[in-house]
Every structure is written in structure tokens, then in C-alpha cells.
């Protein structure tokens, strides 16, 4: 998007929350508004990204007895953003968020939309997390940049959210259990410590897929799952991790080799809010099989 166009307010503004983990340059390029979640550790509460970092969360969870909790943005946080965008020239707002099964963020946005006016603010539940949400936001932002109506922008987000698949591996289920985010994955509790659970996000919940014996096999299964989704089609993908950059890079290299139609690949560390629930060592891959015309193959890392 040329700078001159970027400086003009779009007819449809796109909003998300901080758990989408979109690369900063993408957020800036498309003018996406990001509303942060709150993270509480060591007796203090702060906004994800600006006040509390991924490294702080990883250090805290790595200490025996360390505990980190998260809380959603308030409806007032969303109201302030929506009104600023509308007062700044936007006619409509499309707001795309983390699964309502995993967080109250979507509900806070929905309440805010009711206060501002549901005829001007459309709130969507991505039923996903991290770049599972982020790719839906990016699809919405591209549709808005192309001059699409609010309905077209929302439709692009919904289509991408439905198609995108998210797979991940954690070193332990304890952090997910503490936060109440594991859903059906609770069936895996009590497994031998040597077993590495491979999980995915299905219909907004964290669900177990399979169990493998080693971390290396777990990474291989992530690659295979991604390859099964991608096939020979053009796709976009993202790799996430928390305090595991080398594992994430190996995963990214394997995806590059295995996905012949890979157009975009983003590699980034999970932020504090999701990191608090998956714990250090977590690695995941998100595959979006709804590519955009004219998208060049690229790699981006936060």
C-alpha cells in the first residue's frame, strides 16, 4: 500500500487483539488497530507487548511455582478504539478476535459494539488463536485496503478463519490445565512424561490430535499435518514459539522444504497472553490455504 494511501483513513477499519501476533510491519502497513490483553505476573498487571514481554512470562513460568494469569481487554478499551476510528473517518469497523472459547475478549468487543452501534461495528469470533486469528485479520485488512464493503471485509475474515488450521506442541499440559484452556485435551493429563501431545484448535477449543514419544517426532508431525492441509496448493503459513527459537527455525526450514506452494512464511514468538497458557518450549504452525492473488513468497520474523 503506497504511503499516500496509507495516510488516508479507510472506509472500513480493521481491529483485532494482541493475541493475533501479526508482524509489526504488517500491522503498520495495513493500519490494523490492535487492542492488548492484560497479563498479570509478579504482582503486577500490564498490557501484552508493551508492559509485559514474552521473555518475562517464560522466565516466570520457568521458576518452580511461578504463575502467570491473563485477562481480557475491557469493553471500554474497545469503545475507545471504535469511536476514535469512526471519528477519524472510518464509516464501518470490522473487529476480529481470539476464540470466544478461549478468552472473554470477543465478548468484551461484542459488548462494546453494542454501546457504539452494531450497525457500524461488526465483531467476529475467529474460533482460533495466534496467526489462526491473524490470517483472518490480514484477509480482512487486504479486503479493506482494496476498497471492499464492511460485508466483504467480514466475509474475507470468516472464509479465512474457517479454512485456517493451527497445530502445536507443548512441553507440558500443566499451563493449559491451570488456565482452563485445554478442553478435551484434559484426557491427555496423566500421560507419561516422555509423551509429547500434539494438539490443534478445532471449533475454537484446544483439542488433542495424537501423542508421540519425542520432541523430534512431535516437530515432524507438525510438518506432516501442515503438509496434509497444504497439499500442492498455494498457502501461507506461520510458525510460533515461546522461548524456543531454534526449534521454531527448524520447523520453518522443514515447512519451506515440504510445502511446494508456500507463498508467505512468518516466524514469531508468542506474546505474553498466549505464552502464559502454553509455556516455554511450545512450538506451533498455522496454515492458511486461502492465498491472495499477487502475493509474493516472503519470510518475516519478529
TrEMBL record:
InterPro entries: DegV (IPR003797), DegV_C (IPR043168), DegV_domain_contain (IPR050270). It comes from the Bacteria. One of its GO terms (molecular function) is lipid binding. Keywords: Lipid-binding. The keyword rRNA-binding does not apply. Signal peptide: none annotated. The keyword Transferase does not apply. Pfam families: DegV. This is DegV family protein with EDD domain. It comes from Modestobacter versicolor.
